[in-house]
Amino acid sequence: MSTTVPLIVRLLASSVSVAGRAGKIVRDVMSKGELGIVEKGKDDYQTEADRSAQRCIIASLSAQYPKVNIIGEEDSPEDEGEVSSEWLVVDADKEILSIECPSFLQNVKEEDIVIWVDPLDGTSEYTQGFLEHVTVLIGISVNEKPVAGVIHQPYFKTLVDGEKKIGRTIWGLQEVGVGGYTPAPPPDSLVITTTRSHSNPIVEKALQVMNATQILRVGGAGYKVLQLLEGVASIYVFASPGCKKWDTCAPEAVLNAAGGKLTDILGNYYKYGASETRPNKTGVLAAVNNDLHTYALNKIPQELKEKLANK
Ligand code: AMP
Ligand code: MG
Ligand code: MG
Fold first, then answer.
1. Segments making up each domain of the chain, as ranges
2. What average pLDDT does range 226-242 have in this prediction?
3. Cα 98 to middle of ligand 2, angstroms
4. Closest-lying ligand 1 atom to the alpha carbon of residue 195
5. How far away, in angstroms, is 196 Cα from ligand 1 center?
6. Matching CATH topology for 7-179 and 191-309?
7. Could you say which ligand is closest to the alpha carbon of residue 250?
8. Rounded Cα distance, 30 and 126, in Å
9. Is the pTM for the entire model greater than 0.90?
10. What confidence score (pLDDT) does residue 75 get?
11. Which of 47, 50, 118, 282 is catalytic?
């Protein structure tokens, strides 16, 4: 049956399943308490959870889709070793498999796809115990554009039929829509979301000019976009080159599918081809709709835009 389902839909269904498994790895590493923190650069950390979750995701997807180019945040020599069978996920989410594929994606081939994986977005928050900020991100791009994405929250708690359940998975597919959460309209007043752990004077300047009634400071690109999707915030502003393609690919795809928009702070879309530079050099500006995106874009001073563009 599965061979009659278009590749993009199968890939999204597989990504939903493997993101849940990766989320369990993230929880297991934390409960064991041996985080194995490595400093990759200034304010940039990796833990055993980042490494293991990435191995699980890449091994599982590349075994099933060998010609898809999968780029993960973490590069570690361990990636070459055998991955234990417990971490090899071959399931695909049944609900997603039944989605009707948009016609423009029906004939996509493995060679046209680049997947950007952030196995644990919000590592600083993870190490500091802000666990609800943590997400697992799998972004699927076709011909450089983010068309589908998965945002998994390993620590999201719900009650299902009176039973406690941990973890939830949000997905989006262009021209189809979103699932895994209840969409909500933006707040009545202007609420901005931004970084909690990577601010600097330029980041703050871009926030000051917005005339927001409230600024929320939380970890992770995934979590901030979730705040937009769930009506907690209206705009995500980050005037810094700190985010990378794996941070924005999945959130951008899900936000697009929900009617929102994510660009750099000059208003240009990022491209997600395999040869693109990893850093999102000119920052992130995302909003729940076009009007709020335009509002924010017009507020950012030209001088600040130029500063980032010429960095
Ligand atoms: P934040 O909003 O600070 O949680 O950042 C969102 C994503 O971008 C996370 O994966 C961060 O690790 C990454 N990031 C943002 N700024 C920086 C930075 N200055 N150095 C390293 N990573 C960063
Ligand atoms: Mg990240
Ligand atoms: Mg990460």
1. 7-179, 191-309
2. 98
3. 30
4. 2
5. 9
6. no
7. 2
8. 9
9. yes
10. 79
11. 50
Q: State the CATH architecture for 7-179.
A: 2-Layer Sandwich (3.30)
Ligand having the closest approach to the CA of 239: 1
Q: How far apart are CA 261 and CA 11, in angstroms?
A: 23
pLDDT digits (tens, 9 = 90+) for 28-53: 999 999 999 999 999 899 999 999 99
CATH number of this structure's domain 191-309: 3.40.190.80
Long-range CB contact pairs, 3-6, < 8 A, 24+: 5/97, 5/101, 6/101, 6/105, 6/106, 6/107, 6/108
Closest atom of ligand 1 to 123 CA is 12
Rg (CA), the chain: 18
Establish whether 135 is a catalytic residue: no
Atom of ligand 1 nearest to the CA of 118: 10
Nearest atom in ligand 1 to the alpha carbon of residue 197 is 3
The tally of CA atoms less than 13 A away on the side-chain side of residue 89 is: 24
| Tens digit of each residue's pLDDT (9 = 90 or more) over 55-88 | 999 999 999 999 999 999 997 655 567 888 999 9
Q: How many angstroms separate the CA atoms of 260 and 190, rounded?
A: 16
Catalytic option among 47, 121, 123, 247: 123
User: How far is 280 from 142, CA to CA, in rounded Å?
Assistant: 18
Q: What is the pLDDT of residue 76?
A: 63
State whether the beta carbon of 197 lies less than 6 angstroms from ligand 1: yes
The two structure tokens encoding residue 169? 């998975």
Ligand 1 touching residue 121 (CB < 6 A): yes
- Asked whether 195 lines ligand 1 (CB < 6 A), one says yes
Phi, psi of 293 (to 5 degrees): -65, -45
Confidence band (pLDDT; 50, 70, 90) for 3? low
123 is catalytic: yes
147 vs 76: which has the higher pLDDT? 147
Q: Note the pLDDT of residue 78.
A: 57
Q: Which ligand is nearest to the CA of 243?
A: 1
Residues in the chain: 311
